[in-house]
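Let's practice the habit of predicting before peeking. Look at the sequence and jot down your guess about where helices and strands might fall. Then scroll down.
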Amino acid sequence: MDFAAAGLLDGLEGDERAARLQLLQRLAADGVGIGDLKAAVAEDRLALLPLDRVLGARYTAEEVEQQAGIPAALLIRFRRLLGLPAPAPDDRVFSEDDIAAARSTELFIESGLEMDAIVEITRVLGESMARLAATSTAAFVEAFLQPGDSEQEIAVRFSLLAEQLTPALSPVLVAAYGAHLRESVGRGMIGREERESGRLPGAQEITVCFADLVGFTRLGGDVELQELGSVAGQLASLAADITNPPVRLVKTIGDAAMFVSPEPGPIVEVALELVDAVHEAGLPSLRAGIASGPALLRSGDFYGHSVNIASRVTGVARPESVLCTQEVRDAAADAFEWSFAGRHRLKGVAEPAPLHRARRPGAAAEAETTDSAKRQTAGRRRRRASS
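Done guessing? Here is the structure:
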């Protein structure tokens, strides 16, 4: 190939031009066509093409069908459920792992697992894997990209690391899934009602807590995006650290975390701990709202009136406070100190809802002592100033 005539060396001189030429020659020798090379150069991803090849996408959907027995149309449907673009008939986007996955899917179908269940599992898997892939890719680049690297150096280093580290990730994923599966089974119950109906209950009584950082959206206009991401990451880490059974961390999304528990008391304690942990970490103030009631578990998330109410209670909570509905307050009346926070109109609730602020025992007296000390100090300063 005449790479210069194709415009693939335009604007490059010296060592940078030599490194680009070496990489182009390597890729062309591996069978990469001129069209793919031009597209990669235009998209500033030429250095990543060798990594693409290491990751092993080499089969079309029809070729996977021939080896695994799953119809190509179904393979493409599953790929879209994973959040990936649908390939053209001649696109080589499937790997050996995809063939193994297709065979496993065929086994699930033959075992009697309903297609609706397989679709739901695939969709949730795609959402989770997209986040994991984005996170691990960013960590990989940050760890191994060196200042002044040429495209050739990046291509060689990244492809070699991928050959070594990608296989090592599979046991980590399997172990993490197994651990969560065991935890889920440990929480599950199959009693007489479930045995008679052949189904799990549609809804369950739980307590839901939402917690979010006050002013996080406004903060986005004042700090660098990387710092904003660090704040969200710190919140997620703190939320995971302070969560203990029976409370479960359901998810974190940017400036917010969601918890559930079968018992109100433990989740109130977790919310108070998170408020303190966020304060000590120097992050924007946290507020939390907690409500109890029936909720439906679907795709690893919870839905229902209690979930909506908890979110709306959070919206009216003051910074560094944990605000609870009457039901939560009554169920955990003796475990905390409570102060009435008034009646608030919440969307979806006909009458104004009474809300209560939770504090640890002795916290109110401690706060009063602190406020008194601050007032005395301020008074002394005013007297000194006037004299």
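How did you do? The mean pLDDT is 87.
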